[in-house]
Structure formats: C-alpha cells, structure tokens
Amino acid sequence: MDINLDIQNILVIKRMYELRNVGLVAESLGKTSGAISKNLSKLKTQLNDPLFIQTKHGFEPTTFVENNISNFEQILSSIEAIKHQDFSPESYRGTIKIYANTLFWERFGSKLYFALSKEAPNAHYSFLRWGSSNARNQLIDGEEAIAVHYFDETLPQSISQMDFGKGKVVFFVREDHPAKDFESLANYPTVLFKTPGWNDNKYPILERLRNIGFEINPRADIDHPAMIHDIILNSDYFGITLSGSVPEGCRSMELPEKLTFDVRYVMSCRRSQKEAPLNQWLFQKL
After folding, report:
1. Which CATH architecture has domain 7-81?
2. What is the structure's pLDDT at 266?
C-alpha cells in the first residue's frame, strides 16, 4: 500500500476513535465539522477503507482502524518525541575536545578548564594544540570538536566562526632595549610566533607592515611562547604578541595609528553543529 498520510489526518483518526463524534473532534482540534468530514473522506480514499461506520450510538471504527490504531498512535508519539536535544552540563559524561594555539593554552588554559569542569565535572576533556592533529582538516571533515583561534578568512563556509572577544596586536622588547620607538625596530631582528595549521603560509600582520613600507624578515618561526619570551629577554630581538600577553621584564612599543591591528577571537566548529546544545554552552563559557 503506497500511503502518504498527513500528520493532522492521523490525529483526526485518533480523535475519532476516542470521541466517535465529528462535532466533538472538530471542537477538540479547533476546526469545523465540514473540515473534519473532508479529512475523513480523503483518508477513506487513501486507506481504501470506510474507517468509521455511523450508528445510532455514534461512529464505530472498522476492523481496519481497530487493528491499526496502535500504529497510528505510535506515529503520533514518534512525532511528539522529535525535539531539540536536552543538555545538562552536570550530567554530561562525554568528551569535550578543544583545539587552540599554545599562547591561548598558556594564558587561559587552566582558567577555562576550571570554568568548564565546575559545571561539567563528569566530562572528559581533551585540550589540544591547534596544529597538533591537523585540526583544521578534521573540523572540515566533520569532527565533533571546537577550535579557538583568530578569525581565518580562508576557512570554508562549512565552518562557523563565532566571535567571542577581541585583542590588539602589540610589539614588545626587553625593558632596557635600545629601541625607543616603533620605527627604530626595523634595525633589529625578530622572531615570530607560529601556529601550525593556522598561519603556516602567511602572517597577516607582516602583510600589513609591508603595505606601509616596514619590511620584516623574521630570523625564526617558533611554536613556543616561553621560548620566544626568553630570546627577547636575553637579546635585542623584538616580538609580536597580543595585548595582555607581554611577559614580565618586557615593554610594549606603541604602533602607529594606521597600523592598529585588531584580532577577532572566534570559536570554530562545523556549521551543522553550531546550534548543538554542547557547543552553545562552550561558546557561552568562552
């Protein structure tokens, strides 16, 4: 039997089975008796059965309806069960996987862990470096994880990037560095913080600098902030970091107004998973 039943019509069958009266069914569904009669006529044709026989005591269901009423009720129960997933952090026992760069973990890692584990004490946490497992491609391929990093215009539309904060790029040197202003830094070497999987091929800040005639050729790309800080504390090198991340013993150099460089912190995940209750909770905590 090739059947394409409307859910409302299945509800009409159920109410007719319970009430045995077209007028009462119409009243319970907020419809007219004529509309209910039309529903029943259509159903009779679709199901090839009279469905209900009128008697002096009301409408009696046919054997077909008696034999299938449980199936109709099951269909309606299944429809009612379709709803958004409930999420309760305190009872969640799954794995929460987050990718971020080393600087983020050094600056915010423990704070984020304590904030999450306070509300979701039974979850298992996996905090990984952004480039440690080819996170970019794994997210694109559908991995159930989130990534915390800077806005990346090269990510495909299948990845959602939700802003949760902003930072400012600053240059920094050791306290007693001989350079007195930003322009004089051109005479000194630099090392760059590298995030594998994010800025492998280009550094947006360097492109901005070149556009104003400030050419930087870094001596090294380093994936360890502590190592960069140690080099700068013990040499005439300068570094590039984010406001709030200038290490003790160093000072920041004021950038020209035309070089003000804001960074958008984003949480990335598969666009199809953006509204998942777990990801919405993680975004709120970030």
Report:
1. Orthogonal Bundle (1.10)
2. 93
| pLDDT value, residue 267 | 94
DSSP character at residue 151: -
What single-letter amino acid sits at 95?
T
CA 8 and chain centroid, separation: 35
> How confident is the model at residue 129, as a pLDDT?
85
Q: Cβ neighbours of residue 60 under 8 Å, at least 6 residues apart? A: 20, 52, 53
CATH dotted code for 90-164+265-284? 3.40.190.10
Rounded CA separation 229/245 (Å) = 10
Helix, strand or coil, per DSSP, at residue 200? coil
Q: List the CATH code of the domain at 167-261.
A: 3.40.190.10
Q: What is the rounded distance in angstroms from the CA atom of residue 205 to the CA atom of residue 187? A: 18
Token look-up 């090269």 returns: 154
Ranges of each domain in the chain? 7-81, 90-164+265-284, 167-261
Binned average pLDDT, 10 residues per bin, the chain of 286 residues: 76 92 91 92 91 88 92 86 76 93 87 96 92 76 87 85 88 93 86 69 69 79 88 93 86 76 87 90 94
Whether the CB-CB separation of 13 and 46 falls below 8 Å is answered with no
